[in-house]
Amino acid sequence: MGKKYVYKFGPGGAEGRADMKNLLGGKGANLAEMSNLGIPVPPGFTISTEMCTVYYEQDRNYPPELEEQVKEAMAWVEEKMGAKFGDPENPLLVSVRSGARVSMPGMMDTVLNLGLNDETVQGLIKNSNNERFGWDSYRRFVQMYGDVVLGLKPESKEEVDPFEAIIDEMKEEKGAKLDTDLTAEDLKELVRRFKQLIKEKKGVDFPEDPWEQLWGAINAVFGSWMNPRAITYRKLNGIPDDWGTAVNVQAMVFGNMGDDSATGVAFTRDPATGEKEFYGEYLINAQGEDVVAGIRTPLQITKKRSVEWAQQNGISEEERRTRYPSLEEYMPEVYEELVKVYQTLERHYRDMQDIEFTIQRRRLWMLQTRVGKRTAQAAVRIAVDMVDEGLISKEEAILRVAPDQLDQLLHPQFDPKAEKKVIARGLPASPGAATGRVVFHAEDAEDWASRGEKVILVRIETSPEDIGGMSVAQGILTARGGMTSHAAVVARGMGTCCVAGCGALQIDYAKKQMRVDDLVIKEGDWISIDGSTGEVMLGQVPTIEPQLSGHFGRLMEWADEIRRLGVRTNADTPKDAQVARNFGAEGIGLCRTEHMFFEGDRIKAVREMILADDEAGRRKALEKLLPMQKGDFYQILKVMHDLPVTIRTLDPPLHEFLPHEEEQQREMAEEMGVPVEKIKEKVQALQEFNPMLGHRGCRLGITYPEITEMQARAIMEAACELTREGVKVYPEIMIPLVGTKEELAHQREVVVRVAEEVQKQYGVKVDYKVGTMIEVPRAALTADRIAEVAEFFSFGTNDLTQMTFGFSRDDAGKFLMEYIDKKILPEDPFRTLDQDGVGQLVEMGVQKGRKTRPDLKVGICGEHGGDPKSVEFCHRVGLDYVSCSPYRVPIARLAAAQAVAKEKLQAA
Ligand code: ADP
Ligand code: MG
Ligand code: MG
After folding, report:
1. Cα distance between the two ends of the chain
2. Which ligand is nearest to the CA of 358?
3. Rg, Å, the chain Cα set
4. Which ligand is nearest to the CA of 289?
């Protein structure tokens, strides 16, 4: 028999389980789990993800045992269903479904009704006693197989689907409005035309042999693992290529057998808000993904939602009940059963589920369950509610929200008081406020975004091909589709604002414009969309700061209770400092002083200092800068009262403060009353081949100690004044780019001398510290010695990464993406800390530093301080705090708590 590749599931139990996702894929594992729970699942089998890997290893060939195992499993399904695959009298039909470990939009679409041919369709008709159903199933099969397996798709983005074009033609001929208006005869004719189309376009006969159909579909699933869409998605989401996909082959149940049949999708809680309310959509006499394809308007499952929906759409109660009934009203018994199933699933999985079901002649069949995608808002609310309901622990709740997802909650929303010109309304599919310029094609979105434009991607509906464009858009707007449409689901997953199913839009792809009544909106026009209300507005609407209380506040409280790492912020202005403090920052980990050098009059004084010929001249210019810097520090220290504020002395090379263009050099000369030659000479003199490794950081302070002196004085004078006013301040003066103990000792001596002087002058004591950044590899290697003169360390992981790899931060963009594509590097080391390499230096720096000075305070202030994976690393190596940009503070707080929660759950 060889290795086992095929796992059966269905009534009576399964060979797999939910925890076998790696082997069976998400769909297969959950179908098995539902079978084991006694939930009605049509029988079937899963070909494991291992087969996918073998398939590619063997140059797209299968080991001989596979066919045997598939045959055996099919016989088992036949027995369960009392029908035979390919039997003209009593045919078994199956679906072929892909299923990777995590749901992936790039994968092969499902093929339904496989096993039909000109003979077996007769058996299906006879047994169902429903001719229309037989031909409807057949035409769907030929269409899906043609599209998905034989690759007969639209050739350009403007072209419509060739099969849909034939259907539209047919509807026109017959004067039919809906698909359901077509007769059995019409559908039979469609099958004929579809096959003819395939023959014409693909040069092959449609395969009549069910086994040939089956293997064709299986090949297509495995083949789709390496299609460009799937590869792009995996890259975007960091999914390894060798995970592979599984194939699920499952007996068909039919939602298109008549008005006592239906198909639908649902969420056990509201995926947009997280509210504890069963929510979903269904269609009567329909099959598969009709619900999400936006062909007919889906109906609401619960009566409550149905009534709300009717109100929103101006539909009378009478009309609603007769034409758009909820499942709760239309089939109360089946609804009751569905409610029981969803409650069982939610209790069992202890998480919100996204389910798919089909009702065949009033009998409920479950076809899928998985953990439902949700907005950040919903994720937070569901996690907190489930703790209250006793379903999960606080630690689990903390782990349920992806830190990066919080971003959605922290960003501004539309100002409710702003004037809004609402031109249309769609479904609030993914919350947020987005403003951007309209584009109509995913490629255009990518183009425009690469030029730094903010875009709103507007589509009739989206498809997996659009992923790239969707991921760069500020917001997504579609004319068709419901809350479970592709656009809605993907947008929620990406945390992108989305308004879906906005029927008022008449989109013209060819002209690149859309109309709402008489209003024409062209490509490039500004619009705003509100993913929480569904409003589409003309122009740019102003936004306001978000609310951080309620469920969010409670989750963050739990996070703060358990985390050990402190979280500070990188802030250079009082405003940023205040934002960060509101977000829970416990201090400033990096305040860059050079930004203060550029504003207004300051740049003039800075330039005077640079142009000065001697120390006396420099000191004169620095005198002018002193009160300005002092004012800045005063404000920042005041905002951050009671908390530590780390201020870094001047870091960049001086030439950054001089103009490099002739034109501006002339202006500057005029303004300062010096000959332009003098400026040119200075620029020349300061020019460096390798500025990043040049005259910067502490090297500046060592050659021009008066600069450090002035900065130390400004900091200490501000601190002393505030202390006098009764404000508690904790300045920490940080020397950048230190590589040897002697460098730091030199600068420390300058700072301490000034600090003592200023304190004496003011007659107050300030609790201040002097420390250093560890960002030159040599500093990490000699951290024990450096700690002799440092009261704190802060790892500047941007420079440390740059110097450890020898990658110039400003030039690495040219090759880093290719490095990642070619798997030379797993990810961008400037975004996620390289734990293997740079991380070793950090760990060593911490250990060596603490050996000398056990109470040494150690933090990190590179970009990595706000990256969840890097935060976890910082926790592990025993840092005291991370520091990140203001908006990432809550993200870092949660990530720091997750590091502890993981440890706790692992220990348990
Ligand atoms: P996706 O991965 O896109 O969710 P699925 O494999 O779940 O694709 O298939 C999509 C839909 O096709 C299902 O939700 C279901 O409605 C329908 N379907 C799949 N298999 C069957 C089956 N055996 N019987 C009836 N409908 C099926
Ligand atoms: Mg699909
Ligand atoms: Mg599905």
Report:
1. 40
2. 1
3. 33
4. 1
Q: Is the CB of 368 under 6 A from ligand 1?
A: yes
**Residue 652 · residue 696 · CB < 8 Å:** yes
Residue 493 pLDDT class (50, 70, 90 cuts): low
Please state the rounded mean pLDDT for residues 72-95: 97
Q: Which atom from ligand 1 is nearest to the alpha carbon of 368?
A: 7
Q: How far, in Å, from the CA of 22 to the mean position of ligand 3? A: 18
Which residue's alpha carbon is nearest to atom 23 within ligand 1? 252
Tell me how far apart the alpha carbons of residues 829 and 833 are, in angstroms, rounded to a whole number: 5
Q: Output the DSSP codes for 476-535.
A: EEESS--TTSHHHHHHHHHT-EEEE--TT-EEETTTTEEEETTEEEETT-EEEEETTT-E
Q: Which two tokens stand for residue 478?
A: 């579609």
pLDDT tens, position by position, 208-228: 999 999 999 999 999 999 988
Dist. CA 302–CA 297, nearest whole Å: 15
Q: Ligand 1 centroid vs 52 CA: distance in angstroms?
A: 21
What one-letter code names the amino acid at 39?
I
> Using CA positions, which residue lies closest to atom 3 of ligand 1?
109
Tokens at 39, concatenated: 């939930």
In a 10 Å sphere around its CB, with 0-12 CB exposed, 13-18 middle and 19+ buried, how is residue 541 labelled? Answer: buried
- Which atom of ligand 1 is closest in space to residue 289's alpha carbon? 11
Residue 232 alpha carbon to ligand 2 centre in Å: 17
Catalytic positions are: 486, 861
d(CA 195, CA 202): 10
Closest CA to 431 of 362, 503, 381: 381
Whether the CB-CB separation of 358 and 263 falls below 8 Å is answered with yes
**What residues have CB less than 8 Å from 663, skipping those under 6 apart?**
none
Q: Which atom of ligand 1 is found nearest the CA of 287?
A: 16
pTM of the model: 0.81
SS (H, E, C) 740-785: CHHHHHHHHHHHHHHHHHHHHHHCCCCCCEEEEEECCHHHHHCHHH
Which residues are CB-contacts of 390 (< 8 A; sequence separation ≥ 6)? none
Mutate to test the pocket of ligand 1, among 367, 462, 485, 486 (most ligand atoms within 8 A of CB): 367
Q: Exposure string (b/e) for 302-338, b if CB count within 10 Å is 16 or more?
A: bbebbbebbeeeeeeeeebbeebbbbbebbeebbebb
Neighbours of ion ligand 3 (CB under 5 A): 356, 368
pLDDT tens-digit readout, 821-854:
888 998 889 989 999 999 999 999 999 999 999 9
> What span, in angstroms and rounded, lies between the C-alpha atoms of 825 and 815?
11
Cβ atoms of 562 and 869 within 8 Å: the answer is no
Q: What is the DSSP string of 373-389?
A: P--HHHHHHHHHHHHHT
Which residue lies with its CA nearest to atom 27 of ligand 1?
288
Are 533 and 557 a contacting pair, CB within 8 Å? no
Among all ligands shown, which has an atom nearest to the Cα of 288?
1
Q: State the virtual CA torsion across 397, 402, 403, 405 in degrees, nearest 10.
A: -120
Q: For all residues of the chain together, what is the average pLDDT?
A: 93
Q: Which residues sit opposite 366 in a β-bridge? A: 357
Question: What is the number of the ligand 1 atom nearest to the C-alpha of 250?
Answer: 23
Describe the strand order of the beta sheet including 506-508 as a list of residue ranges: 506-508, 513-516, 519-522
